[in-house]
Amino acid sequence: MKSKEIMDTIKMVSEQKLDIRTITMGISLFDCIDSDGKKARQKIYDKLTSSAKDLVKVANQIEREYGIPIVNKRISVTPISMIAAASDDKDYVAYAKTMDQAAKAVGVDLIGGFTSLVQKGFQKGDHTLIKSLPEALTETSRVCGSVNIGSTKAGINLDAVKTMGSTIKKIENIDPVSCMNLVVFCNAVEDNPFMAGAFHGVSEADKIINVGISGPGVVKRALEKVKGQSIDVVSETIKKTAFKVTRMGQFVGNITSKRLGVPFGIVDLSLAPTPYPGDSVAEILEEIGLDSVGAPGTTAALALLNDAVKKGGIMACEHVGGLSGAFIPVSEDEGMIRAANNGNLRIEKLEAMTAVCSVGLDMIAVPGDTSADSISGMIADEAGIGMINNKTTAVRVIPAKGKKVGDTIEFGGIFGSAPVMPINTKSPSRFIQRGGHIPAPIHSFKN
Predict the structure, then answer these.
(1) CB count, 10 Å around CB of 7?
(2) Tell me, what's the pLDDT at 313?
(3) SS3 for 391-410, per residue?
(4) Which sequence spans correspond to the domains of the chain?
């Protein structure tokens, strides 16, 4: 970083809520595989605690030295369904507890990778992991899980879609808040540093450092300076701002990598909001010219924002990956919460918006009496958008047990609170219960 860049960064941190949302160490567990589950779990604990023992210390040093807030320190691991399948264990809850214990031992906030990849079908470990999800996520405090049920190349596993709807309902019956630790993907990526969907992909190095940046407040402040100017100026302003934010992410990633002796992977240049004032993607869209997020024109404005962020970020860093775009989680964005409470933002509009931004229906609370098949229908819709558009989409939905539309469910901290949103009450059951496999689209056959 040059001196001017450092001064710009200091200003963005102090005045515009810029932060590093996460430093995530990815760790391969393939060398921990053992037919004896107890031995495998001991190997996992030993590798995690030895590999990440200095992660939090180094991140805290960088915060103090450079004045750059690093909100979360995290670990992602190889999908546990692959690691545990070598054993004869009847459930994988003990693996989740081992991950949780290791995360606590090294002081990280979250650990991801209680994961299964079933876009084309189930293997032994996949069935066992998915069956274990309700107990695994409700009996641990830092473990996050994910299941990939579709892809552009493979199509959509409708049997898995059906299973995940009922799995989410089972988690709700134990502890609805734990639903926020589970995400269902189409086209999941291997180098995502953000939770709940982070896992360490099979093509990654043994250990890697990935960085997730933030910065909605920085973008909004930049746009305040170009009020009334053409949309071309808006796009150029966002690109230039994203360039600066991404350079900071690369700077922090390189320093972390060097100090830990772990290769630097990618910067995920997603705009990740928080529920705190001034740190909202919704407010960026309103600064572009909408009375409220959800108004006609919202999807177009979000498409502009997402594209400009990517263009600016790719110019700033040669290693961009993960999800990289604008997140629109309802509970984690003050502007989204306000729009949902005012009735200006509904799930159908959010679904349209997910076609042009990162991920999908994220951190959305629905009435507690929402059926498993209706949740599966939401998952299928998002997977359809991802599959056809060759992009990552996902659903992280929280059925709010005992609550109805207009009520609120509290998560705390950067996870905020979610207003319970109405959903279409017509049933998709006959569609979901068919099961089987939705074929890959024609444009997937590129070889």
Answers:
(1) 11
(2) 87
(3) CCEEEEEEEECCCCCCCEEE
(4) 1-326
Q: What is the pTM of this model?
A: 0.92
The region of weakest confidence among 127-136, 138-147, 221-230, 413-422 is 413-422
| Strand segments (E) across 298-374 | 361-367
User: Token pair for residue 51?
Assistant: 């590999």
Pair 406, 374: CB distance under 8 Å: no
Spatial distance between the Cα atoms of 107 and 245, rounded to a whole number of angstroms = 27
Instruction: Report the distance separating Cα 288 and Cα 235, nearest Å.
Output: 10
Q: Do 158 and 436 form a contact (C-beta atoms < 8 A)?
A: yes
- Looking at residue 96, its pLDDT comes to 98
Angle, vertex CA 192, rays to CA 387 and CA 390, nearest 5: 15
CATH architecture of the domain covering 1-326: Alpha-Beta Barrel (3.20)
Mean pLDDT along residues 336-350: 90
Q: What is the DSSP letter of 418?
A: E
Distance in angstroms (rounded) separating the CA atoms of residues 202 and 310: 25
Residue 69 carries which side chain, given as an amino acid letter?
P
DSSP state of 439: P
Task: Give the whole-angstrom CA distance, residue 360 versus residue 257.
Answer: 30
Residue 5 confidence (pLDDT) above 70: no
Q: Which two tokens stand for residue 422?
A: 């109405």
* 239, 226 Cβ separation under 8 angstroms: no
Residue type, 341: N
Residues 6+ apart with CB under 8 A from 11: none
DSSP line for 196-226: SS----TTS-SEEEEEEE--HHHHHHHHHTT
Residue 106 has pLDDT above 90, yes or no: yes
Q: Provide the pLDDT confidence category of residue 277 given band limits of 50, 70 and 90.
A: confident
Q: Specify which residues 400 forms β-bridges with.
A: 367
Determine the 3-state secondary structure of 445 from DSSP.
coil
Residue with tokens 């995400």: 183
Q: Where are the alpha helices (DSSP H) in 175-297?
A: 216-224, 231-260, 281-288
**Predicted confidence band of residue 320 (pLDDT cuts 50, 70, 90):** confident
* 8 Å CB contact between 361 and 443: no
| pLDDT the model gives residue 159 | 97
